[in-house]
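Email to the structure team, subject: Zinc ribbon domain-containing protein model.

Hi all, the expression group asked for a predicted structure before they design truncation constructs. Nothing fancy, just the tokens so they can compare against earlier work. One-line instruction: predict Zinc ribbon domain-containing protein, return tokens.
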Amino acid sequence: MNKYLNQLVQLSTIDQEIDDFGPRIEKIERALNGALDTKQEAQLKLDELVTQTKEAQLKRSQHELHLAELSDKIKDIAKKVGAIKSEKEQKALQLEEEICKEQCDFSNEEIERLDKIIESKNGYLEEAKAHFEAAEQKVEAAKVAIASEMESIDKERASVYAKKEQLVGQMSQKILTFYEKIRKWAKNTAVVPVRKQACYGCFMRINDKTYAAVLKGEDIVTCPHCGRILYKEAEAV
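Reply from the structure team: attached below.
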């Protein structure tokens, strides 16, 4: 294999290594995003329960306030009884008192109902808080793990880029430009091996003349079907 072809094979391998960092980083980010999504869901559930509990407590307070007002009203009616001058006034006060008592019964029933709701919500709140705290811990653990993994990846990536920079510095600009032109559409299959007389980029069989040139390895040969750069893999020892 001539020097330039050997450089192209090496460069293709290095570019593959560089591109492989992308999926690795995406996988790491997905793990963190998954933990963050779980935490957000837990936060929303917790916020919803807090809001519902506060609404129930507010309604309970309003009924208690209404009960106090009704109690004062009933006392006021009792005071007026002594000053009744007619049957009509008596019936009016009795009706007013009955309405007040009915409202008292309703408010007491509502307070009892709301107390049950508040008790139930408080139980769910404890569960939601525990779930949120667990989700928060997972996020923090994921951040620590990710920081460690990213540090390792950054070191690997710096090493690979340094290797590429050194190789590119030794290469012919003309050959490098030719490679980059193919790589634009072929991505990491710009330089591919020939196996069983077939291009391992398009998997088409190449003619005998092209195959013979690939076997010699003296020139840079491209696939007559797809235009990828071809090379013969070294024989396994």
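The two ends are 17 Å apart (CA to CA). The longest strand covers residues 191-195. Ping us if the truncation boundaries need rechecking.
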